[in-house]
Amino acid sequence: MKVLTPARVSNVLLPFISCMAFAQNEPLQSSDLSEQVGTDTETLIEESRYIDCDNESKRCRRDYIEQIEVRGDRPNPISISSEGAYTLDSQLLRDYRTGNGNLTDILGILPGVQYSEAMLGAEQLSNIRPAEVSLSGASGRESGYFIDGINNNSLLGNEQNNANRNYLQDVIGHSQETFVNLDLVDTIEVFDSNIPARYGQFSGGVVDADTVKAGDELQFGLSYRGTNKSAVEYERFYSPWFSGKDVLSEPDFKKQNIGAYVKAPINADTGLVAQFNLLESQESLFQLGRLRLQKQTNYNGFIKLDHALTANDDLTVSASYAPFKGQYFSENALNSDYTVDGGGYNFNVKWSALRSWGAMDSQLSWRASENNKDTAPYWFAWASLPGKSWGGELGYESSIEGGYGDIEKSQRTLSFSQDFEFDYGALLGSTLSWQAGFELKQQYARFNRLEEAIIYNGSVIRPSVNCSGYTIDCVETQYKVPVSALEAQLGRALDLTKPEDILLLNNNVLQSGQFFAQREVNPKGDASARINNLSAYLESQWQWQDLTITLGGRYDYNNFVKNHNFAPRFRGNWSVFSERGQWVFGANRYYSQDQLDYKLNEAKQPSHFELRHLQQGRLSQWVSSKVSRGFVYQYSNIRTPYTDELILAYRHQLLGGTLELKWLNRFGRDGINRVKGYNEIGQATLFAGNEGAYRYERLSASWMARFDNQHVEINLSKVSNEVAPASFDGDPAVKLGGNKIVANDAFESDELAFLAIDEMNLNGDLDTKYYLMSLKDIEFQKQDFNRPLIANISWGGHFGSWQLSMTARYSGAQDVLYKAPYTRSISSAAGICETCSPAQKAYSVYFERRRASVTTVNSNIKYKLLNTQQYQLNLSLEIENLFNQRTYTIAPLSTGLEVGRRFWLGVKLDL
């Protein structure tokens, strides 16, 4: 073999040293470099030559061949710094991807991550929206989502229960603006503690995803995945009182996920990525005896161009379009179709530069999203009589028709950010490393109820009514054969005292006359807000021997609430046991994003009632009543909610992996709560207060390792999450004297529900008492996202043409609220007129029961069917709930359907 001696080294390295110097901000002159190297060569090198060296010669290996042995552990998701970060690389994303393939679906393998209990329900089989997750005890909207450094949080979400898609005064929302498919993602970094100051406007965790990049070779591919009703197993449960009349039909659905991509190196300095993904779901449901399709679609179109301007400068331009559309209907209502449009698009330009003093990133982005609902503006509860009989055919007293009117919500964001990294100064002989940056952002959001939504209740039956030209909310009696013709056939007048004549007349009715004497009008409303936001941060890192300390802070200000928020950040790590162990500690504050939805709620005006009468058989005009329902929202003088965090963790390199023991403690303060009151003109008003608070505590143990062809992730978390009583709305019931309790008319009818509690009476027997509560308080009581004990075991391996993975998740038992299959009625506080009796309104009922622990195992099997230099063909089988275990989504002693084992099949072609 040939051995390179020192004289030859200088000649070989000289071009590379010259190139490196040229790439700096202040390049060295080549002549100076030659003189410098030449001087060193004359001083240090006396002779240079090639030597033929026998690889087996001990002298040769000893004297001429330098041998370097490198030992280390393969990287696993656990961070090696003081940041509380977990990194999911492309291999983990491919191995653990199951189901819809949304961004949040894979986060469950990490410690402390919790999903909603509704995620396991049978109604979710056809759903394609990403599951909401709780990071560090916070709700989904309180965590920060970033795609390529750009915030993806929606300002248009709401805190209502998303099990209901159709609201009277809002549109179903989500914490994310756009739903990004994992096919577009290269790595995900998840922070649950010690979060750097460059991230802000959140109070939970942070999910930062980087999109795919172009490689050195041209690549393109196609993929298809699908599932349907035949790939799902179910388990039926019946209450002791089940009559046997209702049929527990299995959801008839199908889902498909289609993807295509191109990765193209245009030249040595430029690469292009273009990707398309479609996730579609269709479900067949019976609407009033007729089979119809509900459909959901989510598109992801993405393009990214990377260009190396110089050896030290890189320009990235990307754009994405990700619309969501849901087409739904109410199964027991006529003309009840409604369409929900969401998602949006963004455009992003990023310049990354390396300089002699450090590095910097400059980023400019524009994004827009919407959240709209399109449906009929009238909602009717007709009496189930001829002509309006569809409800009666299903056994209901009323025939429901219509919708709640059109609503448009939109969001626009323009932002520019600048980030720097550099070394400057020293302390105790150690260099200080700095990170600093700022962001300028303008956001515009709008809520617009485009039309009045009119709710008709309490149909009045009058066969002789004259509708006086009202054709929407009144119908006149119609006969198959005119009464005069019928009497002519009989040869006499009808005698309605005779049962046979009554039967004859009823059978002759095509449509029974009825009308509405009262209605609830929800007026149009429009509210918008434009917010200018300034953010800046600074962090300094100091390392002395085995101790590393990072100290800094973040400042946020906007011209909407005009709060100056400073969030200190402190974290550190101390290496022990010859760097095999590491203590991590920190104390931090995180300010959440300003609750813009309270400003948009100002567009939701209280509804008012209107009346009319029947005068001499003819309808009069509608006249306004003095009674209104609903609150006015008023947003002013609000502090920004924040969370204080303490964290202590120990990491140790063990058995080829990393063991992490973590204690995380968080205190949420200044949370937004709703304070009931009256404004200056006497309207019932919901003021935004700052009395909300919570405490979250987690103890977790994790071990994660990566070997040559396998990886393992194991974690166990014990969690406690408590909400302060001041966060609740309080009692929405009104006491009129004695024991009489009525509903507060200021609350919207779809905002309330009953909580059933079994209490011991004086005789020692259990009595069920019903307490009227707001749905917001019901959500607190439900203990969603709050399992006290969570464990995960995840494993993946590559064996030749086979790629296998498996995840097992255990969720401990807890007391939760189930929704009862019946309703309970209560009177309104007042009638809508002086002579009207208060109306009875039925509300849903929730009751508390123990939900057993749940263990689910998911598996992913991929097989490389063909593998040539030109293309690869892969087959995949994804199995959820592999062992067909119960999910306990059906309450004890209740009737319902639970989902068991289910499958996805897929094929992927890479060229």
TrEMBL record:
Residues 1-23 form the signal peptide. GO terms for cellular component: cell outer membrane. Residues 89-205 form the TonB-dependent receptor plug domain. Gene3D superfamilies: TonB-dependent receptor, beta-barrel domain, TonB-dependent receptor, plug domain. It is found in: Cell outer membrane. It comes from the Bacteria. Keywords: Cell outer membrane, Membrane, Signal. InterPro entries: Beta-barrel_TonB_sf (IPR036942), Plug_dom (IPR012910), Plug_dom_sf (IPR037066). Pfam families: Plug (PF07715). Its main location: membrane. This is TonB-dependent receptor plug domain-containing protein. It comes from Pseudoalteromonas luteoviolacea DSM 6061.
